[in-house]
Amino acid sequence: MACPVPHTKQATPPAGHPELTPPSATNTPDGLNGVTTPAFEPNAPPSVVPSNEVTLAALLYESGADGRTVDDWPLPEELDFASPVSELLRKGTQRAHVAAEHSGGATALTNGELELQEYIRWLAILWRVYDALERGLDEHATNTVLAPTYNPSLLARAPELAADITYLLPRLPSYVTKPTSPPLKATPEVPLPPFALPPFLEEVFVNTPAPLEVYLGRIKELSRNADLAPRLLAHAYVRYLGDLSGGQVIGARLRKAYGLPGLDGRRFYYFDLHSDKSSAETGEETVGERKKKLNEVKAWYRRGMDEGAGEDQKLKAAEVREANVAFVLNTHLFSLIQPPTEKKLRYFEKRDQENERRSKLEKPRRTWARTLQQTVYFFLAVLFGLFLTQIAVPFVAPHIAPHYQQHVSPVVDSTIAPWWNDKVVPWWQERGWPVLEKQMAKSRRNFI
């Protein structure tokens, strides 16, 4: 379907262009016209659509689509649609994948730089995405395209996200987690989650941000239409394969960043591959074993995708287009993350600094040379003490004694001694000594 307003992709959108507010000059990177981006090339420029103005039409236009539907999304010419759909999705989403990985929000999340409250808010945003996606997959579980990869007991993330949020909320101050009154009520469009909704999470459900609204709207649109439902495979591919790959790195880093002792608080990143949660919690599972199991699951998922799509080249093209849309929507979703204004040391960085400080305080290793040096210093100190007591003091004392008796002793006897006897001694006998005696008696009882 072509755009009803004639124009070229390189020009600024003309007046009357449907459902699209042209990007302003302040949002356009140097050297870009804010309209086109290279097609599926690595290190593509970031989106110029402001986060609060995200619409599906704006994202399609920015991609260089010839029309206003996802089917108008441009595809790379080198793609061979006789290839399996898993290979096509990998090759056909390279540019969008790179853009998502290098967004600012994704970097802050991966490095564990988010405050705990902001990280919990991000989990709530993800819960809404997975809840909508997994409801759609459940509804179309028997669809021939979706059935080979349908395995909610292994893949479903919404329950794990709810468990993580429930575990992490009590770690925040009570004034932050205090629920609002009256509590939020569920609606057909916005189902309530199985976890508490303090004010900072309630806004995710009441005032849905534009990138999340567009993402949810697209998933629900596919779920409501049986003909479009097979495209849910592309969204599941982007989310699940990402969680099985890069998500494992994030989960490991967040464990250190937030001081999480086991799986609690990071179950979203853990897939119960063979009912082996106990081994992961006790540390019996090695990194190599875990990686091997994850690779097996990813291989199974790709085989299921290939089986579901079969040889239908039109369907494969639709899946590649939909996967690119999913990547772009996820990239804009990362814009909802609010990194801290100033970088703070993470948990493991503080630990490393403390270990370094302690290592500097450790005593140097004893050597024969150091032992000999300390022995020489000891004997020199003894000789100096003997010199003072046996020679220096007896020689100097007769010269100092007359001056002390003449000048110092009268002052001590006339001022300091009376003050000491009149003030200090009575106070000590009345208050100081009883307290000391009581403490000494208590110490003796404790010792016995």
From TrEMBL:
Q: Name one GO molecular function term.
A: heme oxygenase (decyclizing) activity
Region (Disordered), start-end ranges: 1-48
Give me the stretches of Polar residues compositional bias. 23-36
Q: Which UniProt keywords apply?
A: Heme, Iron, Membrane, Metal-binding, Transmembrane, Transmembrane helix
Q: Which GO terms describe its biological process?
A: heme oxidation
The membrane spanning regions, by residue number, are: 376-397
Any one Pfam family here would be Heme_oxygenase
The name under which this protein is listed is Heme oxygenase 2
What is the source species?
A: Vanrija humicola
Instruction: Provide the organism lineage as a comma list.
Output: Eukaryota, Fungi, Dikarya, Basidiomycota, Agaricomycotina
